[in-house]
Design goal:
Distance between the termini: 31 Å
Structural class: mainly alpha
Largest sheet: none
Strand content: under 5%
Order of helices and strands: HHHHHHHHHHHH
Number of strands: 0
Shape: flat
Amino acid sequence: MTGIPGGASPRSGSAAAEGRDTGRALWLPHQHGAWAMLAVPLLLGVAAGGPAPWQLVLAAAAVAGYLASATTQAWLRARRRPSYLFSLRMYGATFAVLAVALVATHPPIALAGLVVVPAAVVGLLGARPGARREVGDSLAQVVEAIVLTPVAAYLSGAFEPPIVTVYSAIAAAYLVGTVLVVRSVIRERGNTAFAASSVGYHAALVVVAALWLPAPYAFVAAGLTARALALPIVQRRRAGTPHPLRPVQVGAVEAVAALAVVLVAFVAPAVAA
């Protein structure tokens, strides 16, 4: 899970940035929206099963895993690879320790590896030097993230498959939408057909939410649709001006969208317990 979902990888085309801010780049990837990909499914898992102490360990493992993955991808693209080895080892070791602790105390969550490992391999293949990040690479990141929902719910001790399924679907719907929206203003900017498909996807979510979920979900879905429509328009209007739409601004919009999804999940349960 690196960079803005569907956008640029944290270090692609970053030789200049490497020279300017090497210390920071070695430890904190350049990103603007990836944290939402961790927070949303994790928090929806909490909403599905309730809070529990081990979810904090899961959160720490997710952050360490993300940083290890992002650093590995930066290492693959870097010209000075040895510079990344120390941070890569630290993040990898931290993730390994936390993951072992989680599996040792809750063995069934080892099944998550059947999903996470293949998805992570797809992400790493997409990060090879010269490789263009495709939609499939971003969707692989989404798959990795969605696993956090059932795992967080399981750690709560109140795992109810129908409830967890609904919340996992909500996480998936939001994250796939994020990939489409962000890609429509970064890698596919100016591609009217792609932007239209993004809006169409979100409009379908409004219908689904209105038919099968409590009313607040349909309102949130409508807001997400509005942002899917507005961002490409803003991007086109500001292109070539002194104030173009920047990735950090897109990331800020996605952070607000993520907050709305999480809040409605806690305020208006999608499924009665």
